[in-house]
Amino acid sequence: MENLTLLAPELAIAVTGLFVLLAGIFMSPQAKNMLGYLATFGILGALGLTVGSFGTEAAMFSGTLSIDALSQFFKLVFLAVALLVSVAAIKYTEDSNHTEEFYALVLFATFGMMFVASANDLIVLFCAFELASLATYALAGYEKQNARSLEAAMKYFVIGSVSAALMLFGISFVYGATGTTSIPLIAANSGLLVNNPIGLVAVVLLIAGFGFKMALVPFHMWAPDTYQGSPSVVSALLAAGSKKMGFVAAFRLFIVALIALQPDWQLAFTILAVVTMTFGNVVAVAQTSVKRMLAYSSLAQAGYIAMAFVVMTPMALTGGILYALAHAFMKAGAFIAAAAVVWMVTSEKKGNLEVPDHLDSFKGLGKRMPLAAISMTIFVFALAGIPPTAGYMAKFVLFSSTIQAGLVWLAVIAILNSALSLFYYARLVKYMYFLPPDGEKVSTPFPYAMALLLAVAGVLVIGIWPEPFMQWAMEAAKVLV
Amino acid sequence: MLPVASLLILVPLIFAAVTFFAKTKEQAAGMGLLGSLVTLGLALYAYMNFDSSTAAMQFFESVEWIPSLGVSYTVGIDGISMPLILLNAIVIPLLVLYSWKEEREAPNRFYGLILTMQAAVIGVFVALDFFMFYIFWELTLIPLFFMVNIWGGEKRAHASYKFFIYTHVASLVMLLGIFGLFYAAWQQTGVPTFDIRELIAQFQFFESGMLRDAIFLAILFGFLAKIPTFPFHSWLPDAYSEAPTAGSVLFVLLKIGGYGLFRIILPMLPNTGSPNLIIAMMGLLGSVSILYGALLALRQKDLKRMIAYSSVSHMGYVTLGSAGLVALSVSGAMFQQFSHGLIMSILFMSAGAIHASAGTRIINELGGLARKMPKLAVIMMVGFMASLGLPGLTGFIAEFLVLTFSFVNLPGFVVIALLAIVITAGYHLWAMQRAMFGVYNEKLGDVKDINALQVFSMAVIALLVLYFGLNPSPVLDMMITNSEAIVSLAAAAGV
User: Which of A313, A321, A396 to mutate to test the interface with B (most CBs of B within 10 A)?
Assistant: First the structure.
């Protein structure tokens, strides 16, 4: 009999999700507001269980699931994002009739992501990946009356499905050549893939499949439209959570299972990382929609994390993993701040209603919504890598590792990109603090304020006291090498 | 014994945080004054308890911070940092007094940023861990960026972005150098550390000469761009002249580039592949800065821009004196940093006062201001005389030491710098004569003299310029002690 207590965090999320869904059926629209609190408590419980189980190592279900430092660390990332999203969404779903669906989908998506983090078998990995993806497709189109939200969902769904097919196709090639779907066994038999055209085809297909989730250029086309069109809290989940799912899956698949093919995929990731960060930063400069700008900045950040595949030293992987955690807080926080502004514009019914997250809506935000403005400032400075924030710590470790590996050119490109990104981040700060406000002061709704404070706390704690997170990330990196 | 080094960072930082929440202008300026006075008290306490006869670190504190990366919180003060801390601690409260009566938007942010800046700059001076050093180094950018961008002149957007991007990119290059130093030393010893002195000590053991040169040049570039030295100076005139008066003074107090030369570059220099080539390069850049800055200052129409270019010229002495690599030339360079901070504060305060009351800074549109602004004229005259190197004032001592003692090793470059002395005297006197003396330009209307607080703050600085000009030893002694330690390192390596 399996020891199910090892899966306690996942089970807590699944039970909460089912309960929210069922309870919602019997509740009046007003009473549904408490579902958000319920989901938040469920996530908090799962978070506690995950943190409590740090250090356990186990294989479950005939070795198809692996509980180790890497999976624990990423579960922490996903649960942190889910927590921020679910707190912020208490306000967002206030007037909705489908609150239970929203929260159930968020919880199921998180459940899927957590399974991806511990999947040690390609079939489990694919199923969990699809569970999370399907839930997020529906979430992207949550605003059924909003054409942009529907466009976002449609684009995301179509491209997502094609990518899933490519991924499955790639998995089938790997299975065909090695005769197994278990990640450790593939690694053991990877000799069969080396110098074999099948291996090369599999790598190409898998990179395309996972590249979609990680939003690496050129598999990114959906990302800006989807992040911009989706409800902001959902964008937070997509950019901060779902994207990391792509990374943890790719970490296990490429670095553990397909390590024998390293020369092939490493070259591909080198090009992808450089192109992605440069493209993301350059295009972000030209954006006037803040969510779209955050989407492109999210591409750039994915490019930085992808450097871990290029450098491949323990330090670089530690940096990449730490970056995933840091990015979860900064990006989710930034999207939630955008959500607060969108709420402000739409509830006042004045300003640019067509694009409520336009830069103009952020004019004088320092006076209108001081909390949202100061948090947004901290998030964008963190994204730009300014100390003492989580973004700085993560960049410090990741970029320094490229020097350690002797890849000075890569470090220079990354650092110049980082400097370039300051342009558009500083512009946003300028709008918030230096331009005169367009309207009256608005008090930030409590759930948004709470979520923002949590995210700020995350960004600053990791920035100022990084030692425990460094240790966890190092442990997680050890699983890979 | 107080943990002075930590308090010198913490006190202005805490007061800055409080000041940001001030409701009225009086509260903000009052908190600013109080915070900077407490900092001044701490700096004086450190100075009283300071032992000038040793080059060792004093007020040393060290606590582990991120052990897995070898990062620690390590601070200390020695003869290189003490005068610069003193400079900041003295000028900032006077700056607050100077700007007391000025009307401006958001005074809470204005004074909060001044204190943040003070904390960041002192942080750079006391940090003995590269990680901390870099954090404070970058932190200095943020208050200055906002200072120029919010309260600056007409072209403030351009100037603030240019300054920010320019020096940020240079700092990133330096960061790459620090990474290289860190990992090479880690490989060497097997223990990660960011301790500045430990890393510099390990530097000489790196096998690859190319690696050593690459690390050294990357770090040197960061410092040269910050000083700034020709040809990396183009951000300076825009930033200095577009900044509000307080911002210009903060720029002047930002002596971190030169400080980096003494703390990091000179101890590493003897162990680079071709130290003599690098010394020659630094000497060339320093002397060209002196001459080129002076030539450009001569043709400026805007008084503040002229002062900005004269700053490029004067900072050239810091680079040249460092490259001279004789104890007294290095001390001269250190003293130039101290002296330049005081003198330029007077000059920028004067230019700010003229702009505020006459409404223009274009030299040809001024004229005869001394009649209407006699108090300003006297103090400004002291500043200008000190700036052109009149004996008896601090500028003379610094430049005399640098030129005389750099001549030992770098005679050619000293000759280039000597050419600039005449030009320097020329543009100072010419500007003074056109702006302040002669017939009063009636188009300016009724111009008011500076207020009592401004007289006080500028006069105190002017008196310090005179005092240290006549009796430099209170700060010069500790500089000489440390310069000798630096130079003996180089001598031991046979440079």
Answer: A396
